[in-house]
């Protein structure tokens, strides 16, 4: 195809003498030239066999070679590549427009979906956060209500009372004193002491929430040891009062106190949460 | 015979070598191929008529190709490339058919 340009110049002078219908399809039936008396079929056979190397044959062979080449290239390019290769400019523009539209639609969809995803993630994060806070709050309230075990720094106090002079008032005083000093969880002889605990005298011992306990009374208290111990030892305080009553009191600080006595949570009969 | 060989060699070369067609020529290749086919059928018919002349064949072949490519080029420039190339293909197709009919009359006498 590249030799298109050269023959174009020699085209005009060569055209007039060529009156034969290779291009113009004027129907010609009779033989005007060549060997008369031969039929077309005979001429074809003669041209094909035997092969002769003439100028005409070579030139025609060259042109047919070019034709075959072009044919093969074209067939190959249309068959092996997508439809885009042979498409015209207008078609390509249209296809491009369609693709743009589709891209835009898909982009929109993607934006919408990622927005939804963010929303869902946020809400699940929030739910997770709320659950976490609820768990923490449950644990804190459980420590206060005595429904869960607690551990932490604190003090141990043992009241040894051979005379039996320690009564419920004395123990209640000690508990109040400890609470005032910031005690967060405590138990006496394996009975958890919470906000609603009560102390009553019962013979030689004391009833705490209906559980009878006897001397020696062992307090396990979680709180700041540096606050709790002085609160007990102040002049006129719990320790001095007990000593005056012939009881021996032993207070030790500890970095790890375990309050593992539990209390069953009591469902209130009348009071209901007023929040919400 | 040598001409037929040339065609076969050309097809084989096109399939085997996989030449890369320059982008500028690409749109004109199909039309040029059809135009060349038309020239070849015309030449074959002329040969059967006994009036084949190699000079005429060469000129008609090349001019067909060039004119077809030119028409498509012009059509593309005028914005009617698709329609014009359809027209060229239709015209060349009609000519190929009429030439083929003449060839058929010669070869099969029918």
From TrEMBL, chain A:
Q: Does the keyword Membrane apply?
A: yes
Name the residue ranges with Pro residues bias: 14-27
Under the heading Pfam families, the entry gives: DUF881
Q: Which UniProt keywords apply?
A: Membrane, Transmembrane, Transmembrane helix
InterPro entries given in the database record? DUF881 (IPR010273)
Q: Which GO terms describe its cellular component?
A: plasma membrane
Please list the residue ranges that the record marks as compositionally biased, kind Polar residues.
115-125
Transmembrane regions listed in the UniProt entry: 56-75
Region (Disordered) residue ranges read 1-39, 110-136
Which residue intervals are annotated with compositional bias (Basic and acidic residues) in the record?
Answer: 1-13
Known Gene3D superfamilies for this protein? Answer: Protein of unknown function DUF881 (3.30.70.1880)
Instruction: Say if the entry is tagged with keyword Ubl conjugation.
Output: no
| Annotated family | Belongs to the UPF0749 family.
Name-wise, this protein is: DUF881 domain-containing protein
- Annotated organism of origin: Streptomyces albus
Automatic annotation (TrEMBL), chain B:
Q: What top-level branch of life does the organism fall under?
A: Bacteria
Any GO CC annotation of this UniProt entry: plasma membrane
Which compartments is it annotated to reside in? Cell membrane
Residue spans crossing the bilayer: 27-44, 56-74, 80-103
Is Cell membrane tagged as a keyword? yes
Q: Which InterPro entries match?
A: DUF1290
Q: Does the keyword Transmembrane helix apply?
A: yes
Give the bilayer topology. Multi-pass membrane protein
Pfam families per the UniProt record, alphabetical = DUF1290 (PF06947)
| Keyword line | Cell membrane, Membrane, Transmembrane, Transmembrane helix
Family the entry assigns: Belongs to the sbp family.
According to UniProt, the name of this protein is DUF1290 domain-containing protein
Query: Source species, please?
Result: Streptomyces diacarni
